[in-house]
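// run 5 | inverse folding | seed 20
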């Protein structure tokens, strides 16, 4: 019953004192004069962007972001007991207004995301929530939208199992995935299954926007009109459940950049003390916000300020969501590359399927890692897949230069001297006539990179053509917008060699009739791995299980054979 909640009720989650922080608002760089005008203008611009929907049912990234951001503002995150009675929970909360959507999930405890129909309901909820009274000194007058519900709710015995349906926030373990894939009837179906199992769910995507919105409430202590937007794999369509949350502190609305300022005799006194470059401004902003997140951010732990990186950032773990977060500022080129990747993913369903499969394959073999190092990153891998798809005949996706040529005046974008212009209206892009299957594309992807001349050539999705390498790095992938940069500069020769060897092995495995035909299976039995499942297994396991012939054949002979077959194929193509 609602009354049982009312006894214990909702508690605000927070630590430390935010008083200092709130005082800083008074003296913050952006005093209130004029900022509301600017904010209203940015809001209007954003609304236009949000209303802009692409034809053919495709939503632009702007529209998607605007919708999710608005939902997040009306949402709260509640830590609750695993035995919470859902009906009572909803009845209690709906005293504050209509609930539009809710879901539960587990991450170091059980949590609920609750989206109200109106923002006033959130204010009413916070008004009624109690401030925890553990120790008077430790309480914080900061009403964050991360709350906890401290009673049991159900009144059931402690041994009773939770009746809550929790939404998964992580992917199926690789062994389970291999079994599930082996039950599919074709490699194309396997690839589609893998994509569906790995991609971000609607709930996970909402949670990502909510975490950005919660963090914005903290950053707003300094910059009341700021926005925090997710970028990278959280929104580019290639995110896997469990991927990190890249965030961008957007101050454009208050910086006057991209915003028409009203004509007035008054201008704001903007000043940044002790800053002699844009980079040092970014570092200062991130430093104070990082401090604030560290001291007062509810649920934010392990805060590290990595301010000397090429792209300064604040890294931390957000425990209630389980996300590893990277907060950056002034990173508008990365927002553009996110938009570009999103557009490519929307153009043809094969793009996403292939990227997911290659990312999953790379992770299974340790080609990529969550630890930074000399490994190939997921971003580099994605660009490699896009380049490969541009090289098909006919190409499956256009080059970036072609997308730039299709751009309208509203698409024009130059960031720090880099031309980031490309078309945003998908209906202007002609669909490809290429009808190759996913199975064929996957196999060809491995063959393409098994024989790519990495020693001399560079990967370039702007031109859609291999170029001569401008530097000696083992792997050169030109940054699509900051063209003088190599996105895979970190990769060493050992890691590149491993990638090439794995491409050779995987191409070989996919070509074997023993591995590329479905194995009959009976329900209940562990199915024999085949097709895509075999290339996700550690190679020695795949080799032993799949082919007796392969066991007798040394790896070098197999690669030689593969190269021979490729040579023959190429000769056939020429003739
Ligand atoms: N980025 C970039 N240049 C790089 C690295 C990253 O422009 N050298 C941008 C890309 O837009 C990328 C985003 O920053 O998508 C985030 O980088 P990262 O987290 O490394 O890659 P994700 O695409 O988010 O992939 P993952 O799932 O591994 O996080
Ligand atoms: Mg990322």
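// decoded
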């Amino acid at each position: 019953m609602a009354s049982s909640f009312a006894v214990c009720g909702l508690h605000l989650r927070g630590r430390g004192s935010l008083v200092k922080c709130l005082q800083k608002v008074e003296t913050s760089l952006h005093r209130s004069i004029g900022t509301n005008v600017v904010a209203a203008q940015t809001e209007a611009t954003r609304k236009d962007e949000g209303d802009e929907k692409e034809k053919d049912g495709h939503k632009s990234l702007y529209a998607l972001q605007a919708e999710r951001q608005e939902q997040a503002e009306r949402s709260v995150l509640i830590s609750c007991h695993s035995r919470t009675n859902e009906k009572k929970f909803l009845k209690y909360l709906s005293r504050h207004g209509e609930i539009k959507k809710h879901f539960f999930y587990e991450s170091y405890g059980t949590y609920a995301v609750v989206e109200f129909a109106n923002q006033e309901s959130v204010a009413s909820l916070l008004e009624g929530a109690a401030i925890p009274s553990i120790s008077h000194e430790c309480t914080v007058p900061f009403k964050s939208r991360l709350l906890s519900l401290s009673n049991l709710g159900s009144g059931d015995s402690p041994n009773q199992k939770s009746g809550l349906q929790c939404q998964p926030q992580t992917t199926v373990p690789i062994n389970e995935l291999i079994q599930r894939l082996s039950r599919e009837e074709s490699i194309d179906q396997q690839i589609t299954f893998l994509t569906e199992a790995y991609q971000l769910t609607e709930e996970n995507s909402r949670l990502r926007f909510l975490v950005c919105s919660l963090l914005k409430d903290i950053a707003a202590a300094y910059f009341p009109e700021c926005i925090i937007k997710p970028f990278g794999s959280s929104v580019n369509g290639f995110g896997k459940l469990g991927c990190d949350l890249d965030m961008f502190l957007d101050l454009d609305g208050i910086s006057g950049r991209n915003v028409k300022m009203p004509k007035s005799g008054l201008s704001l006194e903007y000043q940044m003390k002790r800053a002699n470059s844009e980079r040092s401004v970014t570092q200062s902003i991130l430093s104070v916000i990082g401090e604030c997140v560290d001291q007062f951010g509810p649920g934010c732990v392990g805060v590290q300020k990595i301010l000397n990186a090429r792209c300064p950032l604040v890294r931390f773990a957000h425990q209630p969501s389980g996300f590893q977060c990277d907060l950056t500022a002034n990173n508008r080129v990365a927002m553009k590359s996110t938009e570009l990747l999103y557009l490519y993913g929307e153009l043809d369903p094969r793009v996403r399927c292939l990227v997911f499969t290659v990312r999953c394959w790379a992770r299974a073999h340790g080609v990529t890692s969550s630890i930074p190092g000399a490994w190939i990153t997921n971003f580099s891998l994605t660009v490699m897949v896009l380049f490969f798809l541009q090289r098909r005949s006919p190409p499956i996706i256009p080059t970036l230069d072609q997308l730039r040529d299709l751009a309208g005046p509203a698409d024009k974008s130059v960031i720090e001297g880099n031309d980031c212009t490309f078309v945003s209206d998908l209906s202007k892009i002609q669909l490809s006539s290429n009808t190759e299957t996913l199975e064929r594309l996957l196999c060809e992807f491995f063959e393409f990179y098994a024989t790519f001349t990495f020693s001399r050539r560079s990967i370039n999705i702007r031109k859609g053509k291999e170029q001569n390498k401008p530097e000696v790095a083992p792997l050169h992938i030109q940054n699509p917008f900051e063209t003088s940069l190599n996105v895979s500069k970190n990769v060493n020769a050992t890691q590149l060699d491993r990638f090439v060897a794995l491409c050779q092995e995987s191409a070989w495995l996919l070509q074997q009739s023993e591995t590329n035909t479905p194995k009959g299976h009976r329900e209940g039995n562990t199915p024999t791995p085949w097709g895509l499942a075999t290339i996700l297994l550690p190679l020695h396991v795949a080799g032993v299980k799949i082919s007796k012939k392969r066991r007798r054949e040394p790896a070098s002979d197999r690669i030689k054979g593969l190269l021979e077959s490729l040579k023959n194929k190429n000769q056939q193509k020429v003739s």
